[in-house]
Amino acid sequence: xPRVRHxxxxxxxxxxxxxxxxxxxxxxxDYLQEARLDLLRAHREAxxxxxxxxDPADGIIVIRHEVTYLAxxxxxxxxxxxxxxxxxxxxxxxxxxxxVFHEAADGTRTVYxxxxxxxxxxxxxxxxxxxxxxxxxxxxxxxxxxxxxVERPEPFRVARTPEGHYPVHVRFSDVDxxxxxxxxxxxxxxxEARIRLFSALGRGLTDVPPxxxxxxxxxxxxxxPILLRAEPYDCWTQxxxxxxxxxxxxxxxxDDERVLxxxxxxxxxxxxxxxxxxxxxxxxxxxxxxxxxxxxxASSAPAGRP
Length: 306
Description:
Layout (H helix, E strand, L loop, with lengths): L5 E5 L14 H23 L10 E12 L10 E10 L4 E10 L5 E15 L4 E2 L4 H8 L23 E4 L14 H20 L10 E10 L10 E10 L3 E10 L2 E14 L4 E2 L4 H10 L15
Antiparallel strand pairs: 1-3, 2-5, 2-8, 3-4, 4-5, 5-6, 7-9, 8-11, 9-10, 10-11, 11-12
Helix pairs in contact: 1-3
InterPro entries: 4-hydroxybenzoyl-CoA_TE, HotDog_dom_sf
Pfam families: 4HBT_2 (PF13279)
Protein name: Acyl-CoA thioesterase
């Protein structure tokens, strides 16, 4: 069967950039959402067939994102291209993959990101998951390119420390048409929580130059909806691993003791001048190592590992 991928032309916005002049890691997830919606819209317009989310009471929710950041993307007037396709269809869920890239005249690509998303149909009026209809399964199957299934890993628990706490205040603009906080905004919450933790761990250090990091991998599990309310939710973040040039951060968002979302994010220390991974200042690395749960048992990566 010939490969069928949907191509979406995605304009860039100046506001998408971070302090390094790269498209921020959060904004890529927004691009993926736009490409996914464009695929479903294009199929409906071309075939007139019923697809996921056609009934106003039916929606599609994200269960898990796995996002791999491969190269920095700076602002340009030329849109970036996104190919997306379906990798698996089950009765109660389906998964999609994406590639974000620019393509030269000879067909060669500069790939900035690859990602996979696990999604599920959802009954909005009853606030519960539902099964895909045969018509929906047929619509999705036109784009199937089989791949390994997206599976949730074993859950982890994050240590509750003062420096690892970030109160999540939901803004009205964070909420989507489903009356839930949009899946993209979770990446913003986890980013804010990381920044808060990094700042706390660096407090009091002298003669340490500004430290820059870029996201290499972000895996987020959506366990229950976050809703608009006046009271903040609790986000707890910990340093899970420290390597020579990278670290792994784990986070949870909770409502009281109920876990609503989890994230595991790998970051790389980055030098903006050389555009390369670098080792962090020794004093800051020691602070990071001391923050790893069970820090007395050495949590660093072998030499030579990024």
